[in-house]
Hints:
With 410 residues, the chain is α/β, with parallel strands linked by helices. Helices cover 30% and strands 22% of the residues.
Amino acid sequence: MAGKTIVLGVTGSIAAYKAASLARRLMTEGATVRVVMTHTAQRFVAPLTFEALTGHPVGTDLFPSSSGEVGAGGARSAGPPPAVNVMPHLALADGADLIAIAPASAHCVAKLAHGLADDLLTTLVLAAECPVVVVPAMDGGMWTHPAVCANVRTLRQRGVTVLEPEVGPLASGRVGQGRFPEEDAILSAIFGALCAKDFRGRRVLITAGPTQEPLDPVRFLSNRSSGKMGWALAEAARDRGADVVLVAGPTSLAPVPNVAYVSVVTSEEMRKEVVTRFPGTDVLIMAAAVADFRPARPAQGKVPKGRDVRTLALEPTKDILKDLPPRRAGQLVVGFAAETGDLVARARGKLLDKALDLIVANDVSEPGAGFGTDTNRATLLDRAGRCEALPLMSKHELAHRILDAVLILP
Ligand SMILES: Cc1cc2nc3c(=O)[nH]c(=O)nc-3n(C[C@H](O)[C@H](O)[C@H](O)COP(=O)(O)O)c2cc1C
């Protein structure tokens, strides 16, 4: 979010105090944060809190004071103010890369849905052309009220990102859906809304996670893949406008919102799903750690503890990439190579052997890289001979670098 200006709208919800922590978090991510508060919000938290945290004046009024102090709308100048200085909603709207209203009261959601503009926040939303993210927080009964549901629908149809409040204990003492979401979920929505939509119209198929190959009905062979890299790719491709299908082996990760999810267990199940879906795909990214071997003769019943099992007969699984139907012109295939040495040479060999367009090679023996971690260090090699060694970075960031590399494939 470095270099981005986010207008953070705070409204009269009991969750208004959580916006202070959100403002800090956005700043930690590199954003400049300009806070605008409704009059009701100021009954819950003082503007001074946000002013001190963000280092900028807080916008509270549509009509600036005669001294030229226009809240968050512009600089305090000695001379005659330029036109935008007496119209802070325009200055804020012009300077914003994104408006996030968090928390958004039911009242604010209604005003936004109906285009009302009776305060600084709602007026600047009408004046702005940037993406808007709305984070409602209210009592459960309010969230499920037909009027609120209709207003949320209207906003979503208009392209506004409206997050789902979380389910849990509410300030009223009841339990229901209405809680201010976790900061990570809000940040992910903001990040997604800020992304360039350079994958719009592309159908992206991503595999993720391990596969499990049964020894008997209760035991299996598997690997240490957590699925995090594939998940990050699915989120990044979705945020960049792609239609994403995620075919995943068993992981502990929650499904990615707005991504079609196909759950598989064995390498054979994954192969069938990928081969069937490949013709309707523009970009296939094979981030799954598919088993190379499986038990040759899995037992039908549980093998008893006392049985003398000294050897395990294995057979190779089918290579999914070699089993794909013939490619259409323009179809792209990205593979992964998890190695423990001689990284570039092995990855280059795989790239050629499997006729890949791009391969993401990582040394899984390196600290911070590979299975289970939130970070990865990878080298990208493409069929045109490009070889880019990337530094250690989050899987989220790496996912975007991989998509960037896909976009520039010749
Ligand atoms: C103690 C208290 C807590 C409130 N909490 C919420 C809330 O969490 N969500 C909500 O939509 N309204 C809540 N309200 C009602 C709003 O403050 C009220 O609808 C107000 O008009 C919102 O104004 P605004 O949208 O201009 O900020 C609360 C009211 C009180 C008195």
